């Protein structure tokens, strides 16, 4: 199925970041013509090193998703558009809700309007998050679960997902949306822990600094290795049965948060875990246990996560051991 990418023109919006560059590598290998649009949003994951080994095989445009004139040029001849760019910090969205609104809502409307007017047949894959579900009423969490977003970011990202289906309903845009669970792997930013605390733990371990866990760390999380998730995204961009659908992307298994931290410490061979009381205000962001139901993705696209948490963490640690000067 993924051979269909050979010769296809693929635009990665937000493609210099973690998930975007994880996608860029297999796309180049599959023979796609990859174009990247990214504005180097401050404090986010854009990093030239993420595409250092494929720099001469991809076309990069440093521009903003909200620049409608640039966007209409850049989308025009594309076959598949992965819409990955976002303001990604839950905490920043609470501090600066208007910037979150501007990128995560207005920015997505600008992209969809450009598609509607200038390239209505391009397949659009919207890369979203488990955060819409908030604190789930039951686990595993299927796609039709009630939404209980717990911060501004989650509401805006969910609105952006729904915009895509409005454009599908009224204008027939061929869209697919994905909701990704806790994702980890190479190419993620490590400068701060304001999003993706999991990758930041790898940095702490490699720097021999303690990993602090709030409370007991018994809450279950669904960790998915980025290269596995990338394969699901790629299938979503070409599989005919993915059209108009929304899929959870996760491992489908629950791992206690403390086990994850302890595994990082063990594999890094240094550092330690420290259990501390929840800081004031932090508990209101915790969603409790969260495991994704990935049945739909498995049954429709034939995908399931392949990489064990140990294997994925070992690969992540090895990557950052070698490349950390580019990340912190
Ligand atoms: N990393 C996670 O833990 C995680 C988990 C679930 C879902 N997601 C979703 O995946 C998506 C991407 O996350 P990521 O981890 O790759 O983040 P990232 O910060 O590494 O990548 C996002 C990229 O988008 C770019 N960008 C941001 N605003 C832009 C704009 N206005 N114009 C152009 N480019 C812009 C940034 O410069 C960055 O390179 C987000 O939508 C996020 O909600 C991430």
Write the layout of secondary structure elements.
Layout: E1 9-13, H1 18-29, E2 33-38, E3 58-62, H2 68-75, E4 80-83, H3 90-95, H4 97-118, E5 123-129, H5 152-171, E6 175-180, E7 182-184, H6 197-206, E8 211-214, E9 220-221, E10 223-225, H7 226-238, E11 246-249, E12 255-256, H8 257-268, E13 273-276, H9 295-301, H10 309-323
Parallel strand pairs: 1-2, 1-4, 2-3, 4-5, 5-6, 6-11, 7-10, 8-13
Antiparallel strand pairs: 9-12
Helix pairs in contact: 1-7, 2-4, 4-5, 6-8, 6-10, 8-10
What this model shows, in words?
- With 328 residues, this protein is α/β, with parallel strands linked by helices.
- It is 38% helix and 17% strand.
- The protein has 10 helices and 13 strands.
- The protein has helices at 18-29, 68-75, 90-95, 97-118, 152-171, 197-206, 226-238, 257-268, 295-301, 309-323, and strands at residues 9-13, 33-38, 58-62, 80-83, 123-129, 175-180, 182-184, 211-214, 220-221, 223-225, 246-249, 255-256, 273-276.
- The strands form 4 sheets. A 7-stranded parallel beta sheet has the order 3-2-1-4-5-6-11, sandwiched between helices.
- β5 (123-129), α5 and β6 (175-180) form a beta-alpha-beta unit.
- α4 (97-118) packs parallel to α5 (152-171) and α6 (197-206) crosses α10 (309-323).
- The two termini are 38 Å apart.
- The mean pLDDT is 95.
- Nicotinamide-adenine-dinucleotide (NAD) is lined by residues 14, 16-20, 38-41, 44-46, 64-66, 84-86, 88, 103, 107, 127, 129, 157, 180, 183, 189, 195-196.
- Nicotinamide-adenine-dinucleotide (NAD) binds at residues 14, 16-20, 38-41, 44-46, 64-66, 84-86, 88, 103, 107, 127, 129, 157, 180, 183, 189, 195-196.
